[in-house]
Amino acid sequence: MTDDKLNSYHAAETDDEFVQRSYFVDELSGTDVVIVKARQNRPNIEVESCPFCPGGLEAPKSYDVYSFANRWPSLGKNKCEVILYSPEHNSSLFACGKSGILKVVELWGQRTKVLFEFEDVQYVLIFENSGKEVGATIMHPHGQIYAFDRIPKVPLNELCLAKKKCQLCKIESPERTLFSNTNLISFVPIAPTFPFEVIISTKSHVHSLLDFNDSFNQDLAEHLEKVLGAFQALFEEPMPYMMWIHQGPIKSDLVKQAHFHIHIVGIWRDLSVQRYIAAGELGSGVMFNPIDPLDAATRLKRVMR
Ligand SMILES: [Zn+2]
Ligand SMILES: [Zn+2]
Ligand SMILES: [Zn+2]
């Protein structure tokens, strides 16, 4: 890391004003937008001085998994966290193996509980951007958590739709089912937006990680290893993916509608060929997916171990 980059990295630590955030609603479309002014100055950290490696700026001690407040929060201070999956710089969530992923799952549960203890937190979103193509700026394997002061539109919409009938309590079609163990099921949804899209869901109507016991945690770790392994094996190179966890807003009545699930979307339609959301889709809200979900399921099952 050059001195300039290092200085700019440190600057955010001391000066909270360094990051200016404003929450807007676009009245034309109803879209919620947070403007985060300082984020354009975020450095691209080079490998020699990775701040996430043990002994680095953010992780001074040795660790298996580790969480800390993001220096570059998109929301308020301490409302954005970084979750380090492994001390190994060139690892990935998949490469942590089932026992390593289990530690990450347990940490997700702990951080969910802690973040909900903030009086103004209404929703906890755990997510990961894996790969440069989806905007990861530091290659060390990590995910993030955003703690929102409101229930964001996407999970809110799902919770409202579930008032009529919980879609995740239905039996999934065997053709699109990828894997199943005692407590959870992985499947390709019937109308996916992305070429390779998977949902990992609890079989019973469980609201959040706070309701998980050891058996659920272990079953979830097994699913993540299977699904991420299939994403990695599908092409000659690991496919960049985005992953986010939808769990219940525990302080709201809507929590009753919440059925725990994880969305994982692979963004390639072919090796290194990215699927972009195009104008016709943005303009209409109608998605045009180039891959048949049954084909996607067949191909993912073929490479799943
Ligand atoms: Zn590192
Ligand atoms: Zn349900
Ligand atoms: Zn969802």
Q: Summed up, what is this model?
A:
With 305 residues, the chain is an alpha+beta fold. The protein has helices at 3-14, 97-116, 153-161, 214-233, 279-284, 293-303; strands at residues 21-26, 31-36, 66-69, 80-84, 123-130, 142-148, 177-180, 184-187, 196-202, 241-246, 261-266, 268-270, 273-274. It has a single domain (3-303), classed as HIT family, subunit A, CATH 3.30.428.10.
Structural account:
The longest helix has 20 residues, at 97-116. The protein is an alpha+beta fold. The termini are far apart. Residues 1-15 have low confidence and may be disordered. It is built from 6 helices and 13 strands. The strands form 3 sheets. Strands 3-4-6-5-10-11-9-8-7 form a 9-stranded antiparallel beta sheet. Helices cover 26% and strands 22% of the residues. α2 crosses α4. Bound molecules: zinc ion (ZN) (3 copies). One zinc ion binds at residues 158, 246, 261, 263.
Keywords summarizing the entry:
HIT family, subunit A; single chain; 305 residues; alpha+beta; 22% strand; binds zinc ion; disordered N terminus; 6 helices; globular
- Measured between the Cα atoms of the first and last residue, the distance is 39 Å
Major sheet summary line: 9 strands, antiparallel
Q: What would you say the CATH architecture is?
A: 2-Layer Sandwich
Share of residues in strands: 15-25%
User: What is the string of helix and strand elements?
Assistant: HEEEEHEEHEEEHEEEEHH
Write the layout of secondary structure elements.
Elements: H1 3-14, E1 21-26, E2 31-36, E3 66-69, E4 80-84, H2 97-116, E5 123-130, E6 142-148, H3 153-161, E7 177-180, E8 184-187, E9 196-202, H4 214-233, E10 241-246, E11 261-266, E12 268-270, E13 273-274, H5 279-284, H6 293-303
Antiparallel strand pairs: 1-2, 3-4, 4-6, 5-6, 5-10, 7-8, 8-9, 9-11, 10-11, 12-13
